[in-house]
Amino acid sequence: MLSCKELVALSSDLLDARLSLRQRVVVRLHLAMCYRCRRFIRQMRLSQGVLRQLPQGQSAELDALAARLAELRRQQP
Amino acid sequence: MTDTDLLKRLLAGEQKAFRELVATYQGAMRAVAYAIVGSRNADEVVQDAWLAVVRSLDGFQGRASLKTWLLTITANTAKTRLKHNRREVLLDDLPAPHGSIGDERFSENGHWLLAPHAWHHDSPDALLTEDELRECLEKTLASLPEQQGSVLHLRERAGLELEEICNLLQVSASNVRVLLHRARLKVYATLEHFEETGQC
Lengths: 77, 200
Fold this sequence. Notes:
The complex is a heterodimer.
Chain A: H1 4-15, H2 21-33, H3 35-53, H4 59-75
Helix pairs in contact in A: 1-3
Chain B: H1 3-11, H2 15-37, H3 39-56, H4 66-82, H5 124-128, H6 131-143, H7 146-157, H8 162-169, H9 173-197
């Protein structure tokens, strides 16, 4: 029987669909019975979503870089 | 926009196309460079990689995606720079501002001692409306050891498969998984802290 601590240790592999068949079975069984770990996994997925949507900054710097690269490209024979 | 469309515009030297390319891939390129040469030389490597990209645009065959091509050029530029003193993968960890989900959260038999509470926000959009949380998250990301931060960026933001990350950074699959897991738990701990206290 998997403990909550062990489930947390497997949580990244669960997110990445990297669990072995045996691990998948024990993880599913544990999650079916443990609302705290279900909540933890739900929140881990939410954190993943937050990271994916986190805006990237430095737009002025990127503008300058893009201008320079386009210029270089146009200068190429 | 597909790679083919973008490539046509890049070949024509269209500035807007370069803007799009830079905005989309600069972060991931930086993550690759950070992981291989470290923060001190990463910016220079990224610059050199961009120059190499512009020089070799004509040779891009479209066999790989534009993303894979750009990141491979970046990794190669970084490795050349490194020459023979390849850095070891540092599995030593650094503390993050809000910690992680460590042993102290569990009892001796492995059950939750301090279980996660329900969060007020239930979607990424809702969480990201909080300016303070965004800043707080940036701090946590900046606190991650270079390779942890890079692997997290490449997986979650650039959407790379684990195998691609292993190949680019020449790190074993098990080490990539360790780095990714540690980084994710720190991000989780930051969000959890914010949800519980309303502050960073």
